[in-house]
Specification:
The complex is a heterodimer of chains A (145) and B (110).
Chain A (H helix, E strand, L loop, with lengths): L4 E7 L3 H8 L2 H8 L5 E6 L6 E9 L2 E13 L3 E9 L5 E13 L2 E9 L2 H9 L4 H11 L5
Antiparallel strand pairs in A: 1-7, 2-3, 3-4, 4-5, 5-6, 6-7
Helix pairs in contact in A: 3-4
Chain B lengths: L4 H10 L2 H10 L4 E2 H8 L3 H13 L3 E6 L2 E6 L2 H32 L3
Antiparallel strand pairs in B: 1-3, 2-3
Classes of the chains: A alpha+beta (145), B alpha+beta (110).
């Protein structure tokens, strides 16, 4: 069983194109930009650098993700410490890893979240309340497409 | 994404290993406070405190039966937790898909 929450997508572009787009303003607008939302990204792309993304549908509902770069291996991999801040004042911290693998001139882009409290709970509790935690597990697990 | 105070309390209730042990035990069937105390080496008051936290978020329900208080699972809030995870997963996958579509349009299929 995976201990991580994994998301994946094959992108019809080469890894360096995908990598550079992800850390750019336009790419972040695409990533976080639900219809009608505003996205601002400030990215200091170096190990130890801070990448702050702020996005909101209205000024009274602002979401913020603060990443600190822990590893940068262009165009193959990024590792970030992520802190999510939500409009209700709650904060969640976890590790984010992006990998970019070339597949027939396309890119398998994978995003892994590690250390989410819910993921830990899933692992610790699976034997506790079998049916409910089985559903929790199914909700978390996601195989790369 | 869906966040609320009840969900925070549910995850807090689940964060303690003793409380998770109590849930595991109750997954096998109802038990009295005394029956829960013994395997965990807790006092009755200690168990009552843990059960009270679980009861606040409906992970456990209790009922007085004779002189004992019986505990059983009340899993309603785990459905909320599952819903939270579903929302979380859908949101992040949507972000990844939207970004992928943006890159493909920008790159013009090369």
């Amino acid at each position: 069983m995976s201990e991580n929450a994994v998301f994946a997508r094959v992108v019809n572009a080469r890894p360096e194109v995908v990598f550079d787009a992800l850390t750019g303003q336009d790419g972040q607008e695409a990533f976080y930009g639900e219809p009608g939302w505003t996205v601002e990204s400030e990215c200091d792309l170096r190990v130890g650098g801070v990448w702050t993304v702020t996005f909101w549908p209205s000024r009274d509902e602002v979401y913020r993700h603060d990443h600190i770069f822990r590893a940068i291996d262009r165009p193959n991999r990024l590792v970030l410490d992520t802190t999510e801040s939500r409009p209700d004042g709650s904060i969640v911290e976890y590790e984010t890893e992006f990998t970019f693998e070339e597949r027939d001139s396309k890119t398998l882009m994978t995003m892994i979240h590690r250390g989410l409290p819910t993921v830990k709970l899933r692992d610790e509790h699976q034997a506790g309340v079998p049916n409910a935690f089985a559903r929790l597990e199914q909700a978390i697990e996601k195989s790369p497409r | 994404m869906h966040y609320n105070a009840t969900l925070d309390r549910t995850f807090f209730a689940l964060s303690d290993p003793t409380r998770r042990g109590i849930l595991k035990r109750l997954g096998r069937g109802p038990a009295t406070i005394g029956e829960l105390a013994q395997p965990f080496g807790l006092t009755l008051n200690g168990v009552k405190k843990h059960v009270g936290i679980l009861e606040e978020v409906d992970l456990v329900v209790t009922a007085k039966i004779g002189r004992a208080r019986e505990c059983r699972l009340g899993p309603a809030q785990l459905e909320d937790a599952t819903e939270w995870i579903d929302d979380y997963r859908r949101t992040w996958q949507r972000r990844l898909d939207r970004f992928g579509t943006y890159v493909e349009r920008k790159d013009g299929g090369r």
